[in-house]
Amino acid sequence: MNAMSFLISTVFDLYIMVVILRIWLQMARADFYNPFSQFIVKATQPVVSPLRRVIPSIGSLDLATVLFAYVLCVVKFVALQLVVSGGVAFGPEFLFIGLIALAKAAGGLLFWILLVRAILSWVSQGRSPIEYVMHQLTEPMLAPIRKILPQMGGLDLSVLVLFIVLQFANFLMGDLIGPIWYSL
């Protein structure tokens, strides 16, 4: 059961991250013609395009894509419950768990994007098209931290500060919600 649980969780997590990235790219108004952005759009377009015809956007928020990410989180939780316990008693709490899972996935995605950006900043030094998109996605969160915390010895510690905030939020949610948080 652990192997199947791992496989289901990994496949769902990867695709949920791609869908959340699409939402984030749109909200950040990132370069649409970047190869990384094109991959994200092409990976989600078959499902999002029909949903967009039915579900309108609200300002810059693509509600169809948000709903799709939310549904994926609920389906992931149901699939994991089926594998682990052999059955599921679907209830209204699953809708709340879907929101929690979506928030956790967004936080996890932010962590990985920050990590990739930090590694690319050491390796590619601005020559990678992926680094450009990572910059567009994370700069709105890192700029306010940089205003408070100046660079020390040429090192930008704003990513480290955001990592600490993310870890604190992760532990806090684990304390508030309990084992469900860690099972998502």
From TrEMBL:
<dbReference type="InterPro" id="IPR003425">
    <property type="entry name" value="CCB3/YggT"/>
</dbReference>
<feature type="transmembrane region" description="Helical">
    <location>
        <begin position="157"/>
        <end position="182"/>
    </location>
</feature>
<feature type="transmembrane region" description="Helical">
    <location>
        <begin position="61"/>
        <end position="82"/>
    </location>
</feature>
<feature type="transmembrane region" description="Helical">
    <location>
        <begin position="6"/>
        <end position="25"/>
    </location>
</feature>
<dbReference type="Pfam" id="PF02325">
    <property type="entry name" value="CCB3_YggT"/>
</dbReference>
<feature type="transmembrane region" description="Helical">
    <location>
        <begin position="94"/>
        <end position="120"/>
    </location>
</feature>
<comment type="similarity">
    <text>Belongs to the YggT family.</text>
</comment>
<keyword id="KW-0812">Transmembrane</keyword>
<keyword id="KW-0472">Membrane</keyword>
<protein>
    <submittedName>
        <fullName>Integral membrane protein</fullName>
    </submittedName>
</protein>
<dbReference type="GO" id="GO:0016020">
    <property type="term" value="C:membrane"/>
</dbReference>
<keyword id="KW-1133">Transmembrane helix</keyword>
